[in-house]
Amino acid sequence: MTCTDSYNEPRDQFESRIDSLLREMVVEEALGAIQDDRDVRSFSLQEISDYVGLGVTTLFTIEQEALKKFKNLMVALEDT
């Protein structure tokens, strides 16, 4: 069982768990970069999907939804 297997949880709890995993991934990389005195590296969709236990297609869909929400938010802020 991976950390993203179904626990019969509501969608918001699932999303919260994925958010926590992604946050952990970023923090671990940042701390490693500081410790090794190097630049923070970027991750591929495959690396991220492996880390959180989601398929690349699912992760790509989540990314596209997030970018769409972000774009809509930025447009709304420009209109105010």
Write the layout of secondary structure elements.
Blueprint: H1 11-36, H2 45-52, H3 56-79
Would you kindly provide a written description of the structure presented here, covering whatever features stand out?
By secondary structure, the chain is mainly alpha-helical. The protein has 3 helices and no strands. It has helices at 11-36, 45-52, 56-79. Helix 2 (45-52) packs across helix 3. The radius of gyration is 15 Å and the shape is globular. The model has no long low-confidence stretch (mean pLDDT 88).
Tags for this model:
single chain; 80 residues; mainly alpha; 3 helices; globular
Helix and strand composition category: mainly alpha
Compressed to H and E, one letter per element, the order equals HHH
Helix tally equals 3
| Average of pLDDT | 88
Q: pLDDT under 50 segments (min length 5)?
A: none
Radius of gyration: 15 Å
Our count of domains comes out at 1
- What is the global morphology? globular
Quantity of strands, as a count: 0
Q: Largest beta sheet, briefly? A: none
Beta-strand percent range? under 5%
Helix coverage percent of residues? over 70%
Task: Give the termini separation.
Answer: 47 Å
What is this entry, summarized?
The chain is mainly alpha-helical.
